[in-house]
């Protein structure tokens, strides 16, 4: 049962609406003008508002109503009226004469949306206080809203976007905000699924595009059951039954280069809450971080900040404390790179130049970084800004041992 306010100066419309609503069990109040109706809005859960009211018109009144779904009523169903009503925040738009049979379903939709918005607000409040995702940009605010909405159900979720954008953190945020928060969060990475999968909590599969076809089909069947709830991440397009099962709820994580406004906030978060580094960062160093393209996204930024805290040794971070790659100073000069490429071009066969040059540099890079870290794969992966699973795959491809 909902509390409904009707603000219309047509007695016939008011009578028809009131009858349809009261027959469905709703409580109804009627006001013949906006001036009379506005003071009654706070007590209502839904407002039916005529735009052709005497005195203050409905559009003016609509702009003064906040936090309530409003159904606009008009005798002139023009495109301009409809567009204006929706732009001003109307929930729906009805043209006279009204079809009383449609009213109960409309009220149910409006009330349900209000309930969902209240729940989303609660969840966003929880996320704001507990989640490790950081950002005030428009794109991240949209992500927070999508997380809160996804937390309301146990439906599968597909997280798309580049590596390092925070897909695992997003999966954990959905789990932590859902009614499964007291159950386990299971993490799986690699090409295969375990023989026995959990039947509780949330199952996060970090790289479903790397799963075998058999594993993808099996995961699709698990996702359909809802036990456990499946959240999966991919950096590429999926053309399989699995994509069909997960596509109902998809969240795309934006790359850091598309939300540069969040970089100062992320840096502050890393310095204060992750690395406990009270000395802070100088403005010149922050400008360099904001200008970098961040191909490794937030993960690369985190690694760069961590490296700078080590180099700064308790002092405020200055430009010289930042990694060379971030400052734009590569370890190998351009003329040296050109000389190597020229030498390779003289010896490589046509049709495979790009592939073989890439392999040559990638192999040399891996060997050099592994040598510098004493074969430590965790440190090497962090230095390169890639996941250690990716590092192991590259080492296997090039026959490199640690």
Q: How is this structure best summarized?
A:
This protein is of the alpha/beta class and about 400 residues long. It is built from 17 helices and 10 strands.
The H/E string reads EHEHEHEHEHHEHEEHEHEHHHHHHHH
Physical arrangement of strands within the biggest beta sheet: 2-1-3-4-5
| Cα distance spanning the termini | 68 Å
Number of strands: 10
Task: Enumerate the spans where pLDDT stays under 50 for 5 or more consecutive residues.
Answer: none
Task: Classify the fold: give the CATH topology of the largest domain.
Answer: Rossmann fold
Output the number of helix runs.
Answer: 17
- CATH homologous superfamily assignment of the largest domain: P-loop containing nucleotide triphosphate hydrolases
Instruction: Please summarize the sheet with the most strands.
Output: 5 strands, parallel
Helix content: 40-55%
Strand content: 5-15%
What class would the helix/strand composition place it in?
alpha/beta
Question: What is the number of independent domains?
Answer: 4
Form type: elongated
Highest-level CATH class of the largest domain = Alpha Beta
For the CA atoms, what is the radius of gyration?
Answer: 29 Å
Average pLDDT number: 85
CATH architecture annotation of the largest domain: 3-Layer(aba) Sandwich
Description:
With 402 residues, the chain is an alpha/beta fold. It folds into four domains: 3-110, Response regulator (Rossmann fold, 3-Layer(aba) Sandwich); 131-254, P-loop containing nucleotide triphosphate hydrolases (Rossmann fold), CATH 3.40.50.300; 260-327, Helicase, Ruva Protein, domain 3 (Orthogonal Bundle); 337-398, Arc Repressor Mutant, subunit A (Orthogonal Bundle). It is 49% helix and 11% strand. It has 17 helices and ten strands. Strands 2-1-3-4-5 form a five-stranded parallel sheet, sandwiched between helices. A five-stranded parallel sheet has the order 7-8-9-6-10, with helices on both faces. Helix 16 (377-384) packs across helix 17. The radius of gyration is 29 Å and the shape is elongated. The chain starts with a strand and ends with a helix. The mean pLDDT is 85.
């Amino acid at each position: 049962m909902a509390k409904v306010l009707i603000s219309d100066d047509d007695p016939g419309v008011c009578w028809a609406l009131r009858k349809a609503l009261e027959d469905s069990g709703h409580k109804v109040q009627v006001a013949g003008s906006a001036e009379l109706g506005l003071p009654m809005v706070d007590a209502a859960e839904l407002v039916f508002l005529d735009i052709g009211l005497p005195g203050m018109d409905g559009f003016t009144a609509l702009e003064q109503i906040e936090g309530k779904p409003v159904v606009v009523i008009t005798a002139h169903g023009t495109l301009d009226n409809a567009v204006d009503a929706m732009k001003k925040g109307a929930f729906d738009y009805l043209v006279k004469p009204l079809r009383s049979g449609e009213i109960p379903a409309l009220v149910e939709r409006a009330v349900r949306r209000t309930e969902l918005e209240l729940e989303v607000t609660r969840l966003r409040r929880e996320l704001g206080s507990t989640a490790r995702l950081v950002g005030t940009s428009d794109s991240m605010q949209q992500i927070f809203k999508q997380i809160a909405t996804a937390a309301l159900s146990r439906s599968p979720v597909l997280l798309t976007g580049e590596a390092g954008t925070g897909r695992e953190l997003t999966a954990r945020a959905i789990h932590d905000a859902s009614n499964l928060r007291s159950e386990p969060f299971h993490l799986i990475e690699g090409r295969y699924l375990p023989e026995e999968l959990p039947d509780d909590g949330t199952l996060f599969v970090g790289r479903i595009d790397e799963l075998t076809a058999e594993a993808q089909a099996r995961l699709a069947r698990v996702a359909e059951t809802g036990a456990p709830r499946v959240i999966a991440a991919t950096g590429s397009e999926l053309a399989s039954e699995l994509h069909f099962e997960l596509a109902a709820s998809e969240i795309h994580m934006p790359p850091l280069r598309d939300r540069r406004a969040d970089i100062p906030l992320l840096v502050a978060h890393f310095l204060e809450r992750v690395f406990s580094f009270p000395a802070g960062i100088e403005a010149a160093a922050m400008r360099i971080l904001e200008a970098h393209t961040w191909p490794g996204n937030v993960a690369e930024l985190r690694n760069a900040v961590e490296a700078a805290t080590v180099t700064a040794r308790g002092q405020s971070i200055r430009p010289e404390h930042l990694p060379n790659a971030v400052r734009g100073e590569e370890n190998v000069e351009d003329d040296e790179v050109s000389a190597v490429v020229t030498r390779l071009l003289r010896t490589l066969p046509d049709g495979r130049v790009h592939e073989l040059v890439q392999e040559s540099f990638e192999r040399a890079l891996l060997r050099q970084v592994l040598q510098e870290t004493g074969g430590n794969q965790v440190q090497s992966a962090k230095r390169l800004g890639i996941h250690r699973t990716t590092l192991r795959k590259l080492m296997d491809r090039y026959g490199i041992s640690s």
